[in-house]
Amino acid sequence: MNKRLGFLLLFPSVVFLLAADLPKLPPMPIALTSNAVLSVKNGTEVYSMMGIGAKRSWDDITSKIYVLSLKSGKWTEGRPVPGVAGRLSSSAVGARGQIFLFGGYTVDGQGSELVVGDVNSYFVASHRWYRAEDIPIPVEGAVIGVNHDRYIYLVGGRSRNGAVNNVQVYDAGKNTWSQATPFPGSPVFGHAGGLVDDAIVFVDGAKKSADGGAYVVSDQCWIGKIDHKDPNKIDWGKLPAHPGQGRFGIIAAGGEHRVYFSGGATAPHNYKGVTADGKPIDISPVTFTFDVHGNRWETLSEDTPDARADSRGIAFTPLGPLIVGGTLPDSNPSANVLALPKK
């Protein structure tokens, strides 16, 4: 039996678009972007954490979390992230029965941004939040991945002093940090990637222009192979260009022996969804993967419907990879759940 068909029979509240063989899932209660997204419980629960709503203003940044149960087909509101303010562009991952939420930035009433080093740990079974050890170099817009259900890697990101090329490793078993081999090339943030099978893959993002002025889109592609004995030792190498042009805010994560990438904007932009010259962003419709076992790029779709940018992560579920929220071509946030083609 087709796995997705079997899942439908178990949970009839999930409706399928039979023509496309992709699930149609209910939208979030509110539209959000720059939200952290992941799945837990073998992919049967999907989380959206924090982000910014339709007003695109400092007072529309939320600390709320929303949880989609694929069993009921309904969204519920979970316990909000602790703290006095919501955050944007945080990175989240599941490990050891917990959700770990890292960094991001806040915005005040004058529009000033502050990158924070907060690390929050959420115990899924007991629905409780705890504070973990802060990030040594606070970052937002970092690539995240977990290895062996213990070591969580934060790759690059924007610090209070600009983009960095640090690889910071959090040991979820000991609640401690260490520094791994930094990646070569330009420091970036808003890049995209993930970790699967002892390999970190990331692409693009925003880097400083050659004259050191404004941030511009990077087109670099890297793979880092983690040493089996030393989690802080990474052998970095360049990858050939990925399908489509370089982008900022591609939605990505690693799962099922591949790192998935979808959408993204053709220019760096701010939390209001506009570029430095005040224009709405242009979204790429390309969805592709990097097959770690085959060491190759694969294009899944050159014309992804409802393509978007900025949502921080992909939820891997029995229905396939899901994108939750994100920025649309008109710079508005989305509430919809987009099912990606499954390789």
Explain how this protein is built.
- With 343 residues, the chain is an all-beta fold.
- It has a single domain, classed as 6 Propeller (Neuraminidase).
- Helix content is 2%, strand content 41%.
- The protein is built from 1 helix and 31 strands.
- The chain has one helix spanning 3-10; strands at residues 15-17, 22-24, 36-40, 45-52, 61-69, 74-77, 91-95, 98-102, 105-107, 113-115, 119-123, 128-131, 143-147, 151-155, 158-159, 162-163, 167-171, 176-180, 192-196, 199-203, 206-208, 215-217, 221-226, 234-238, 251-255, 258-262, 287-291, 296-301, 315-317, 320-324, 337-339.
- The strands form 10 sheets. It has a 4-stranded antiparallel sheet, with no helix packed on it. The chain has a 4-stranded antiparallel sheet with strand order 7-8-11-12, with no helix packed on it.
- A hairpin with a 5-residue loop joins strand 9 and strand 10 (113-115).
- The two termini are 18 Å apart.
- The relative contact order is 0.15.
- Residues 3-13 and 15-20 have low confidence and may be disordered.
Query: From the alpha-carbon coordinates, what is the Rg to the nearest angstrom?
Result: 18 Å
Q: What would you call the shape?
A: globular
Structural class: mainly beta
Mean pLDDT: 92
Briefly, what CATH class? Mainly Beta
Number of beta-strand segments: 31
Number of helices: 1
Biggest beta sheet summary: 4 strands, antiparallel
Low-confidence stretches: 3-13, 15-20
